[in-house]
Amino acid sequence: MLASYAARERNSRGRLFPEEAPFLRSEFQRDRDRVIHSSAFRRLEYKTQVFVNHEGDMFRTRLTHSIEVSQIGRTVARALDLNEDLTEAICLAHDLGHTPFGHAGQEVLNDCMRQHGGFEHNLQSLRVVDLLEEKYAAFPGLNLCFETREGILKHCSRVNAALLGELGNRFLNGTQPGLEAQVANIADEIAYNNHDVDDGLRSGLITMDQLMQCRLFHKHYSGVIQHWPGLERRRLTHELIRRMINSLAVDLINTSRGKIASYGPGTADDVRNAGEGLVILSQEMAEMQQELKLFLRANLYMHEYVKNMTRKASEVIRTLFSVYSSQPDSLPESMGGNISAEGQVTGQSVFYRRIADYIAGMTDRFAIAEYEKHCGMHDERSRFFDNRTSRL
Ligand code: MG
Fold first, then answer.
1. CB burial class (10 A; 0-12, 13-18, 19+) of residue 121?
2. Cα separation of 269 and 94, whole Å?
3. Ligand 1 center to residue 73 CA distance, Å?
4. How far from chain centre, in Å, is Cα 134?
5. What distance in angstroms lies between residue 361's CA and the mean position of ligand 1's atoms?
6. Other beta carbons less than 10 A from residue 204's beta carbon
7. How far is the CA of 95 from the centre of ligand 1 (A)?
């Protein structure tokens, strides 16, 4: 059933540590299952997508975001005769390295790590599956297949890519990842653009009137209102978002089919050497999606309320980094307390990397609890995250 250019386990570049073939499952199903059983995956439940976890139970978290990405990714992969299991594994794992408090957390941690190699959340996702998960006796991490790891590493600086061997090559020589990775990448964008519209409307920070300036929203709004004038607001919102996701997914499938057919790859490696991505939206749809993205950036992510939470989140991360750096004994033994003495004398970068790993792995609420513990409950700053005042 798979296209000749889909990823196949018999052509896989394999795992870092060779293992027996799985019984009854494919190699990529095994990868997906390993991701689901990882502790980093469970912690996504309490990590911010846009709204901090305690702001309301109805908003997306990194966990529900990852599941929505996977749902869109699987649909597209199946329609294109690609490897659905691999696509699902990549989608579910793509945000495993995300810090608490979303992008604010990652930017501050990168800033704190400036002298020590920096911090990239994509690279951190790879670090989680390659190194940080402690699940197996025989190897560190989850020992996933090359193709899954290739998909997880969406972006990477040239400096870091040079340290990654075969996996980093494409960032140095401009080749493409496999089609399953390309699907996961665009599924991520489709998912967050649409669920952020939903969460933005629910929060009241953006309005339908404002969204009318986005062609994609306007087009579907007109269509729905024509058929169901006076539709109740909540059903209207969901009907609109459902139609937007569907139109993006259908466009992606049709345009990619045409693009793949015109390039005519025979194998997955032909795809890697195609010189450009083959999983793409039509130009018109890409422009409409970009419009939506810019709208969300200007009106939701840069909204004063969200920016205020971002400032508080930055303060938490910055404070924790400084506390752990200056008082290594405050780190739990498993996360670097035991290397503190050695780290201060010799392996400085190892020491700071452990701190970054520890902070990046935290959930929002654990980071806030650590912050309150180290700053004192009565410190003015610890009231930053008072649930009663910050809840939407
Ligand atoms: Mg994502």
1. buried
2. 22
3. 12
4. 21
5. 16
6. 9
7. 5
Q: Where do the structural domains in the chain lie, given as residue ranges?
A: 9-304
CA of 62 to the centre of ligand 1 (A): 7
Query: Quick check: helix, strand or coil at residue 61?
Result: strand
Distance from the alpha carbon of residue 274 to the mean position of ligand 1, in angstroms: 25
Tens of pLDDT, residues 249-273: 999 999 999 999 999 999 999 999 9
User: What's the CA gap between 2 and 236, in Å, rounded?
Assistant: 38
pTM above 0.85, yes or no: yes
Percent residues over pLDDT 90 in the chain: 78
- Tell me if 370 sits within 8 A of 320, measured CB to CB: yes
Ligand 1 centroid – CA 61 distance (Å)? 10
Are the CB atoms for 149 and 184 separated by under 8 Å? no
Tell me, which fold does domain 9-304 have in CATH?
Answer: Hypothetical protein af1432 (1.10.3210)
Q: Give tens-digit pLDDT for 92-134.
A: 999 999 999 988 899 999 999 999 999 999 999 999 999 999 9
Collect residues with CB below 5 Å from ion ligand 1.
Answer: 95, 188
Handedness of CA 83, 246, 60, 186 (dihedral sign): positive
Own/partner pairs for 302-310, CB < 8 Å, 24+ apart?
303/205, 303/206, 305/203, 305/205, 305/392, 306/50, 306/51, 306/205, 309/51, 309/52, 309/55, 309/101, 309/104, 309/390, 310/101, 310/104
